[in-house]
Specification:
This protein has about 450 residues and is mainly alpha-helical. It has one domain. A hairpin with a 2-residue loop joins strand 4 and strand 5. Helix 9 crosses helix 17, helix 9 packs antiparallel against helix 19 and helix 13 packs antiparallel against helix 14. The longest helix is centred in the C-terminal third of the chain and has 31 residues. About 40% of the residues are buried.
Length: about 450
């Protein structure tokens, strides 16, 4: 009667990929989760959908929230509005309008100049100078050299200090990775965000208007989702086959060890093969508002590092690793952050409930390591003590397509890709995979940037 338009949510639940009834319902969470929700609400001013999906793994979520809070709100080299603007620049590189919109609000809330939001060219030159590093970190981090670092630190009146640069690099890698999580888990925008609501009344054919007030949104189960499909013989066999391979690999490991030459050959083979893994589906990806004004050179994207005759030398983990080199550099220039990141990497890498689909008491360390090392292999990072032959045994084609898409071109991730790997596994296990992808990607980007900073300093 008053002519007030009432928004209703467009999506059903926090994720487009996971049926709403399988996520944690707010109000029915246990005490530990309730404490996490309270923390998230206190720091973010909202309970966002990323939190509602990450809470499948409370131990990781706690570490993630603590790190993000420190990066955005605690004492640090960069002013608050710069931090949110860098978050916008990083998320925009992957057209992640969900994260861009959140940080646009936060940027204005901490007193950022609205003119900067009209495009990167309206931001201070100092932030514009970060554009090149943002672009390379997001798409081709192996090309970063000490000269790129030097340009940022040496440009007279708009120069960055080392501490500021470390803070910026950590923020950029954090938001590139978070964009991977957002697309990889099909995170839906909240009702108050752009793309999260509609003013159209629900169609009568679907359900009665009074259903909305009763919390029913008419969301039908997608036939492809793991929850909807009853255990088929094929997918049950898929789990059994994977466990059998893990057992065989363990036995081979115990019996004989491949030579260093053979290990190097297997790495090169896997690196080459990873180039031929590509997603052919563009049609289903989530429609995004144009956020390209927040970065320059829109045509620059992911390219495999050894394409077109380019030879990028292998990054050998024993020459520069997070544990021995990156961690101490970050902690020295931006105290406590090295510690927080280290804890987050460890939790994601070591997280296990010793289950695989319907099986209990399973040691999944071999599988977790294969996923982590496959991502680093795609970035040209090699561990001398790892047999890359294991990757082909443990990760099938559809899984590799999903991993590469989420890590390298997350904006192209589709529900079909999510549904097509590990069909018999729980959604919580697929979210766990995404946590591994996020952290392995972030660490790979950081390693290239920190190595370049170290070379500049020495």
């Amino acid at each position: 009667e008053l002519g007030i338009r009432i928004p209703r949510p467009l999506g059903h639940g926090p994720s487009r990929f996971i049926p709403e009834k399988e996520t944690v319902e707010v109000g029915r969470e246990d005490a530990a989760m309730h404490a996490l929700f309270t923390d998230a609400f206190t720091t973010l001013g909202r309970l966002d959908n990323v939190t509602l999906v990450m809470v499948f793994h409370p131990q990781y979520l706690e570490s993630f929230l603590k790190t993000q809070h420190y990066l955005l709100q605690m004492d640090g080299p960069l002013p608050l509005h710069y931090r949110h603007y860098i978050g916008i620049m990083a998320a925009a590189r992957h057209q992640c309008s969900y994260l861009v919109n959140l940080h646009v609000n936060d940027f204005l809330h901490v007193g950022g100049d609205p003119k900067w939001l009209n495009g990167l060219e309206n931001a201070p030159q100092k932030l514009q100078n970060l554009g090149e590093l943002n672009k390379m970190l997001a798409h081709r981090p192996w090309l970063i050299t000490k000269e790129h670092i030097e340009q940022l630190l040496k440009t007279e009146e708009n120069s960055w200090s080392l501490a500021e640069l470390i803070h910026a690099v950590v923020l950029l890698t954090h938001y590139h990775s978070l964009a991977s999580f957002t697309f990889g888990c099909g995170i839906s925008p909240e009702i108050d965000c752009e793309g999260g609501h509609t003013f159209r009344p629900p169609s009568v054919s679907n359900y009665c208007i009074c259903d909305i007030s009763n919390g029913y949104h008419g969301g039908e189960e997608h036939p492809g989702s793991p929850a909807a499909s009853l255990p088929t013989t094929q997918s049950v066999c898929e789990v059994e086959a994977l466990m059998e391979k893990m057992k065989q690999l363990q036995e081979c490991r115990d019996e004989e060890e491949a030579s260093q030459e053979e290990m190097a050959t297997r790495f090169e083979r896997e690196k080459r093969e990873s180039m031929f893994v590509c997603s052919s589906e563009d049609e289903e990806s989530a429609p995004a508002r144009d956020v390209s004004r927040h970065f320059e050179d829109t045509s620059y994207g992911y390219k495999d590092f050894s394409r077109h005759g380019m030879h990028v030398p292998t990054f050998r983990a024993q020459d520069y690793s997070w544990e021995d080199h990156g961690y101490s550099l970050v902690n020295r220039l931006y105290p406590d952050v090295g510690q927080l990141l280290d804890e987050k990497f460890h939790i994601a890498y070591n997280l296990t409930y010793n289950t695989m689909a319907m099986h209990k008491d399973v040691d999944t360390s071999m599988l977790r390591r294969a996923i982590w090392n496959y991502i680093h292999c795609m970035f040209g990072i090699r561990y001398d003590d790892y047999d890359y032959g294991e990757i082909n045994q443990l990760l099938d084609r559809s899984f590799k397509v999903y991993i590469k898409t989420v890590v390298c071109t997350p904006e192209k991730t589709t529900k079909r890709m999510y549904d097509s790997f590990w069909r018999q596994f729980e959604h919580s296990e697929k979210v766990h995979v995404n946590l591994l992808l996020v952290e392995a990607r972030m660490q790979a980007e950081l390693l290239y940037a920190l190595r370049a900073i170290t070379r500049y300093m020495t």
